[in-house]
Amino acid sequence: MLYDMEDTEKSKDETKEMDMSKVDDRQRGKEPASMATEHEATQERHAPESLRWKALRSSRSRQRILWIPVLSIIGLALAGFVLYVAVTQAPVARAGMIKSIEQGTLQISYENAASWQPVEEGQTVPQGARIRGTKATWATIALPDHSLMRIEAPGVWQVVEAMGKDNRLRITIAQEEGRASFVSPPPRTSGYSRFQVQVGGVTAELVGVGTFVTGNDQRTRVQILQGHCTLWSNDRPTELAAGEMATINPGGSITVIESK
Q: How many Å apart are CA 220 and CA 153, to the nearest integer?
């Protein structure tokens, strides 16, 4: 009986030791993996930025990044080209010149200026300037497109436009009153030149020689001596050939009064 109790106690102890050993074995089996994981995490946290593992970019994203500076260079080149064309091809203001004063005196009033100043031969006449001829004045003004304006009686004129670049020129003279003859620029083999005279709300595009006389009643008589002229009033053209005359009335109406 005593032996049986000892054997029972002994078997219980052995069973307990076996259960403890199984628990220890399970803990030992898990411990290496968990310790390794904690160790790797610690190394990752304390490792330098350059040594940490990073996800590799795909080849497509690398290509997009490489295209960014290329596209920037192309954009800058196009912007520079557009600016170059705008600067080199844009028309610039040109100035005429007092070619001769045969009789009387001429005065000039520069753009936005209220006073009049006497002018002499050789003096420039810039865009925006107004010219006034006194009594019995005869004078010739050479314009930048090689056209001519001959003042033949007292009056007032303004160089409204004198723009050009290379062989492309635009000249517009406004006649307020007086008498003047105009000679358009010579024909060009390339480019263009547009010569205009503005009177009484009408724009005359002259190709040749014409005389314009504007009286105190603001009526203007136009006579074409050579070539031809197109009178534009309210977007409607009236053609005049050499030898023809017309009257421009206040308000812009046009009356052809003679034809030869």
A: 14
